[in-house]
Amino acid sequence: MSSLDLVHDVLDMQLVDRAGEKMGRVDGITLELRDGEPPRVAELLVGGTVLADRLGGWMVALAQLFAHVTGAKPVVTRVPFAVVQEISSTITLDAQGGATSALRTERWLDRIICRIPGSSDKSGKEQK
Amino acid sequence: MKKFGEIALGVVTSIGGFLEVGSIATSAQAGSEFGFQLGWAVLVGSVALMFLMEMSGRLSAVTTRTFADQLRERFGIRGFLLPLVAVLAVSFLVLSSEIGGVAIALQMATGVGFRVWALPIAFLGWLVLWRGTFGTVEKGAAMLGLVSIVFAIAAAALHPRWSSIAAGLVPSAPAHDRARYWYLALSILGASISPYLYFFYSSGAVEDKWTTEHLSVNRVTASLGNIFGGGLALMGVVVAALVFLPRGIRVERYEQLGMLLTPALHHPGFVFFLATLGITCFGTTLEITLSLAYVLAQGLGWTWSENLRPSRDSRFSTTYTITIFLAAIPILLGADVLKLTNVSMVLTAASLPLSVLPLIVLMNDREVMERHVNGIAGNVALVAIAIMSVVLFVVAVPLQIMGGG
Amino acid sequence: MRVVRLRGDLLVGRMVRDADGRKAGRIHEMTIEPAAPGSTEYVVREFRLSGDGWLEALAGRELASALARRSGRPNGRTVSWEDLDLSDPVRPKLRRTIAELDAARAVSPARSPRGDAARS
Amino acid sequence: MRIPHRSWSTLGAVVIALAGALVACSGATEPDKQLDSLRSWQASVRLATSAVHLGWTPRRYGRQLHDQGASVLEESRKAKLKDASAADSAAIRGAQRALEASLDSLAAAAGS
Predict the structure, then answer these.
(1) 10 Å Cβ neighbour count for C107?
(2) Helix (H) or strand (E) holding A24
(3) How many Cα atoms are found within 13 Å in the side-chain-facing hemisphere of B296?
(4) Which residues of B touch C119 (CB under 8 A)?
(5) What architecture is the B2-403 domain classified under in CATH?
(6) CATH of the domain at A68
(7) Is residue A108 part of a domain?
(8) Stated pTM of the model
(9) Fewer Cβ in 10 A, N or C end of chain D?
């Protein structure tokens, strides 16, 4: 990979793990400022609160209200930039999505959904 | 049969634009108050939707990503937020009125009040989405939707003067009730080019795994779909013009529409009208529920596909489950379906610029579309649609007040 | 060596003022490159500031930068990382005046606005 | 005049909310609108009556339409008329009576 545009090519792009599983989008980016050195791209951030920070104002309040009401403690997933394997129309990570907190809500809902009949048996739908 | 499978996506999407609860009512109102004179609004709506569907389909075939993906990626979360909020709010209202449409069809058929049917309809819709694949929804709704051909049969049975129908396809100013005339034109246009349609079509192109080999299929699907949907909506205007106008009947409550096809086709006319209303509104219910879940999932980067088992894309399947049952509540509480469609029609028109304007940038961005960027015709059409959508946005509220329900 | 962490995405849209306090434009893009050839560590080489023209006021920042990018005519100026003081991320400042910057820029040919990113 | 982006989204949301609110309270009743509505309903009820007689529609549909027509008649009788002249009021009362008559014949055909 060579020169890139951080906003155009990375921010808001789709994150995908090794197996092609979608892991959310790049909601935020952490830079590291070091004296006398160019800022380093440290981490990609995934999370609703990260997104809310970018919208500011009433969206932040909305996010806090939602977290308060649902009791879900907001989690920010930090992906070290070194884990990025390839940047094209999507960003591929050298990681296993299921293990990261980016899919925490997905796993939490899985437990509820599996109790509903027809949610996980073969019903003409792909297993993928 | 395989050929029909290919264009099913176009048929279903155009049913959602021309033969759902709002469009059937507005076409009947247009015909019963202005005869064939508002035919041009249906024509303009179908041509506009044809272009918007072709473009959102081409966008998905070339990039294998959907319109909502591109909106978030090209314009960032801020550029994505306003269209997202507008589409979710407007589509939810339309979704409620669609469930109301099915409920009213069942009420007219069984005599049991429409409020009773709200939750059973939502449950049946959820069941189809939970168990069925995208193909089931797409081909099932398209096949069943063919019943709406009864509008054409009724129109032919009334022996209309086709030349005066054609004359109605040329825009002309009304002799009376100007505000009402333009309000109905706005409703026809607002209903036919609603954002959830091309968000659905774009997601459908990805679900059907379209690639650049499908660009010609995309053009055929978009045009045939709209000739079907727009053509039958026009037939609805014709039948109302020949049945209601001479008798001085103005459509104010949905129940009046039960008689629309009976003078032409007698008892089958009544049965097939209810079947059409119930089927097309049910198909549109599935379409909008999926569209809402698609836009949210794609915007936030979740796993999404109607072809996956619900447990493989839990956030997506949870979203459409909550959406469809939530949308049934206004009908359960007895909301007036016609009023609901009027409000949603106006808000749809008001939300159009937010999704049409970004499309201009996307369809001309060589990084996105490579050599499949818009040609001159596409850009002229898109700019015309964008201007029309801004005009609709500006006149939507005043017209509703002066010419509304 | 002091290391400060900040949210790069929140810089987008922030107005940058030069040493004399004059508006130099809003940050709308950051070009990143490997720190050294072949290294997986990426650093920000340049910041691109958008112009403040009518197009942006009318169409909003996103549509304006998308249109500018599409038309290939960057509607603003490019600032190297050394020239940008991010000690206060909310009010980024240039270490030099716009005049000095543009003069320096005129001498060394501007780098191509976009490197050839690995496009699939 | 530079509108910061955030206020665009709040501006958009306000406009959509305003549109919804305005729409809900529109629709005042002027005399001629009243008259049109009553005559239109009378025509609908007459069509329904013949439809039921000819077996085009089931009786339960006739009863539904009868109830709708009756509620329109009742609303019309309760509604206050904005600046209606004597002639208008007489015409409206005439239309109300005509609607009531056709409602009775529909009730007979459909069997309430």
Answers:
(1) 6
(2) strand A22-25
(3) 22
(4) 367
(5) Up-down Bundle (1.20)
(6) 2.30.30.240
(7) yes
(8) 0.89
(9) N
